[in-house]
Amino acid sequence: VSFINTIIQGALLGGLYALYAVGLALIFGVMRLVNLAHGDFIVLAAFVILGLATAIGLPAPVALVIALPFMFALGWALQRLILNRTLENDLLVPLLVTFGLSIIIQNGLLQLFSADSRRLSLGAIETASFSVGGITLGVVPLLTFACAVLVVLGLSFLFYRTPLGRTLRATSDSLAMVEVMGIDPRKVFAIAMGISFLVIALSAFFMGVRANFDPSAGPARLLYAFEAVVIGGLGSFWGTLIGGIILGIAQTLGGSINPEWQQLAGHLVFLAVILVRPRGLLPKVA
Amino acid sequence: MARYASVTATPTSRWALAASAVVVVVLAAAPYFVPRSTLQDLLLIFLLVVMAQCWNLLAGFAGLISVGQQAFVGLAGYAVFAGIITLGLDPLLAVVMAVIVVTIIAVPVGMTVMRMQGAYFAVVTWVVAEVFRLLLAQWKTLGGGTGTSLPPAALNRVVGIEWTAAIFGVRNAAAREILVYWIALAAMVAVIAVIYWLLRSRLGLALSAIRDGEVAAESVGIDIWRNKLLAYAIAAAGTAAAGALYFLDIGRISPVSAFSVLDWTAYIIFIVVIGGIGTIEGPILGTIVFVVLRSTLSGYGPWYLIVLGVLGIAVMLVAPKGLWGVFSARTGIHLFPTRRRLEAVAPSLTTEA
Q: What is the ipTM of this complex?
């Protein structure tokens, strides 16, 4: 039972990692950009929610709802004002610009909020749990997982069933072609980044409720997100969800043997995957 | 009938080589006339130049953008400490061993990270650095997660320390600093010379061909993978030398400081980007700019890093070739040219040309 319990807790943790990861996968899919500041934007969003919750005295879920449009606008503006200028170049410029953003965000948050660990408060739900067949399931981890599944469902619907999704997929397939069709890819990219930032805000909420965070927590979130994306392959958002679950299980199993091995186990599983199947478990078939 | 020769040297570059030789001699003599604190500043500059040249070899010439060079700094630092503390080696021998061990480790690591390309390569190098940090934090003999210091007795075993102390009339600690200073200077000269020579050799030509078009390069018979792996291993060796000397000099190591992405990758990227990527001059100029900025802004805490980040992004967007790139585009001056030019060589004037 304890082994099954570890697997289930790991899969639930994987839901959080999948939330980190789908925003990253979305951006890479549409514009081939790896946003090295992705994790730092998650932490930034958590501080935005925390700031709204403490400054105005709102409950955290209400603060999240207010933060969502703000984060969309931030992602949209980031793409229009900065990142669209980098995409003409090879991979060096976009990569290093997002790396610079990562340093700026970390130190900006450090200046504003100090290095103290913070947490988003949900009251009694935080510790609520129930028992199924001898396995204790936390309400918050279950909600996180459910949210990840809903986000994947929503993004799959958006990408494969709506006109906007068709534009996003077309832009991903051929920039030259959508330009011929009269679509400005820079606007499409800005919308994609905005959507990515909506997912960032959601993942920030669950990160902040589940664990402590501080201004330096971003890079680790980026690495987890990236590992989930690569393990899953770039075939679909479902692959990213599975990648997150595998990463979560690997970390929880490692951590159950020795707490110091939690992160290490996740990284090693990731490296094993790129050695054996560098295109991920569910690769994109062209 | 004109004949053609492929040349890289120019009159300016010959002057630059001569001037560099003078600068190196002056720097080598510096322990005679500068105070200890200046010597320490210069030592750090040498090590930054070494790491910047190595990152530039990867990103500027081999098209491999790594954000995980801290892996080799940290591994080398730990190898030095392991050599001195657990094997009882002479500190300088430990540095040599560290460079060899890290270069050997870098080959399978390079083969792993090169499974991923482009932006993915960058993040994988970061994951690998994290793996080494987490592994070395488990090494209880070297202090585990909190790290350890070198025992002073072990440090005074350095070869030539008494000789240096006698010549300069200083204590052992100062004599050791002078020795490490000289070795760091030698390492910087060696790394610049090796990279300059490599870029003018077949490897350099192969790397430029790969950078300008992988498919075209492969079609003329260049083994892309082997050339990139070679560049990766050379960059790892140079970075390891800098890391080994740094941690020998400060005498204290911890997983966090040894594998710091800020200290060993972000600063280095800033240096290369500001100075000018893809040139030998850029990393040297960038290091000088970085050190000046740091000494003027270091009192401002997080603001200092925010300014560095904004400057780095601005340069990337406005002048992606950096300060040296702008300067040499305006003036046509290349101190260490790596580009091949064709020059007409008239048969009777061959010796003159």
A: 0.93
